[in-house]
Every structure is written in C-alpha cells, then in structure tokens.
Design goal:
12 strands, 6-stranded antiparallel β-sheet, globular
Amino acid sequence: MLRAPARDAEGELHLVEKRFFDWNRPGGFDFARRIGVISAVGGRNYFAIAEPVLVPGMTVHYVRTRDPQHASPVALRGHAEQRGDAELPLIRVDERELTFYDLEPHIDLNASNTVGIGIIGPVDLEQEDGVLRADLDGDGILEFFYACTGSEGINLMVRSGDRSSGAVRWRAYYYLGYNVEPTCREVDKQ
C-alpha cells in the first residue's frame, strides 16, 4: 500500500478526510470524488477533480498510464490559482465541475505535458507485467487504468474487469490543443 493520508498532531484524520476514508460504509469508494486528472503544465503540477474541499497535505497517488505503468504519492498543496498568462489545463470529467489543486513538485511530474490519473487517499495498487491494478471499491473485481488519444486530446479511463475492454467506471478527457494520431477504439468511446 502506498503512503497513508496526512494526519494532524494527534494522529487523527482531518474531518474532510474522514468522509473519504470511511471504508465500512456501503459504496465506500466514490469514483467521481476520489479520482481526478494529474497534469504538469508550464512548470506547475495540477490535480483536477470533482471535489471542492480537499486539504493541503493530503496524498494523491499519481498513476502513469503509459506502459510500463507505475504509481507514486504526491502531496497536495492547495487550491490552484491562475497566474499571469498561464492558463489552467482544459479537462473534462463526465461533465462535472472541477476544482484545480496545486501539487508539490515531484520527479515523475517534471516533464512538460505529463498527464495521468490521480487517486485520493490510501489505495492498494499492484503491478504485474508493467500494468497497475487495484480493487478500488472492494467488490472483488479489479480496476485497471487506461489511456488512449483522440484527435486533439487524451482519454483517461478506469475500467473494471479488463484493462482494455472492461466496464468504464470513471472517464476524463484532457485537451492538448493540437492534433495527435488517434489510438482510441470504438469500445473506448462508449
């Protein structure tokens, strides 16, 4: 398991973190509020997610979707603010309103235009043959992390059961602003 979330001086989770990490309640893993997009643009690292109340110091696990896949923890700094001419990246996650956060500098995010999946809080990620997997929602079915390109952006997905054709549990689109060779298949668009 990767690093646990930040705790206060008494070892207690912040109140907002307790809401995320109550694994005993039914449906304890909320894909929409625990998974987002990590990107490195213009020397800054961003995390975009449909959750407006994350706190500095929380752990976000960066999942690199290119092969070989790997994951590493990154600390959340706080809400991102637009600075000068640098614009926040254009990201769409299931038509939800997103909140952008700054992340601490990290060796895996130092390349320009790095894009990947971010997961809030503790998660058991396993790697086999260069592919990451985890049973995020505890239903006994493994989730996989997948990415492909559209004509002008990157489609990011979390799928259950099979990496390339399983049921899509979470989806995002990262707009690049220039044409790329599409690699997405019809099954990726559904």
